Amino acid sequence: MSEDPQTVPHQDAAPLTFSFLTLFPELLAPFADEAIVGKARARGLVDVNLVNLRDFAGNRHQKVDDTPYGGGAGMVIRVDVAERALASLPAADEVILFSPAGERFTQAVAEDLATRRHLVFLCGRYEGFDARTEGLVTRELSIGDFVMMGGEAAAACVLEAVARLVPGVIGDPQSHQADSFSSGLLDYPEFTRPPEWQGHSVPDVLRGGNHGAVATWRREQALARTLARRPDLLRSAPLTPADTATLSSLGVTPEQLSDWGAPPAPPPRRQKRRRTPPSVPDASDT
Fold first, then answer.
1. Residues 3, 55, 127, 140: which is the catalytic one?
2. Is residue 132 among the annotated active site residues?
3. What is the pLDDT of residues 219-254, one digit of tens each?
4. Cα angle at 109 between 134 and 164, to 5 degrees?
5. Catalytic residue status for 127
6. In this predicted model, what pLDDT tens digit does every residue of 183-225 receive, in sequence order?
7. Is 270 a catalytic residue?
8. CA distance 11 to 19
9. Closest Cα partner for 19 from 109, 87, 106?
10. 32 FRET partner, CA 20 to 30 A, in 180, 212, 263, 286?
11. Which of these is catalytic: 41, 78, 125, 164?
């Protein structure tokens, strides 16, 4: 989907502010300053505040971590450092810690966060934060079941996912509603010029000008893609009777459809019987 930003300046609502507490603010600076997020900041739609945790170390060497009690490898970021950094910020709607134990970051979570005005994120490094830091946060998030060297990459993902949902950030305010996961399905395939490329053609339906047919084709393609690549999404997707018919045609069994909570398919349309015109006597019969 196109995400060219609008040029109309933002006038009414206060910007959604992202505050990132990190040991490496320079890692997040490009995501805050460039592309659509950078333009959204210039227009007052979002703001990004990069806070260096070392500024709150409380010692001249700006040391923010220490060895773990009980022994073990690695260093742990001190809870008093996190507390002082958080206290320096205005009140937040959410204080979020990136953690492998957190809830999975999804499109639904992104949509929820996009309704807030100030979000604070704690980006860990080394062996993470002292466990007592969990008492300072309102939410823990994970972007997947894997281990990274720090929380900055996860923070960049969340910034991109949430900022684009703020009204006015992308050109078409309805475009994100058709994106993968927003509808409960993977997105349908997109095409642009040239119409022919290395033996592959743009589907005729997309060039025919029939918007109803295009909408039907796109929904069917989204269902087919989701079935082939992420069938687990169909368990919670809001399916329609027409979707049930499409999935049945793709080989999904009635038992599987029932397990997904799919509604019954619409009854087949009755074809009108054509009236047989009365026979005309042959001229030779008269």
1. 127
2. no
3. 999 999 999 999 999 999 999 999 999 999 999 999
4. 120
5. yes
6. 789 999 999 999 999 999 999 999 999 999 999 999 999 999 9
7. no
8. 22
9. 87
10. 180
11. 164
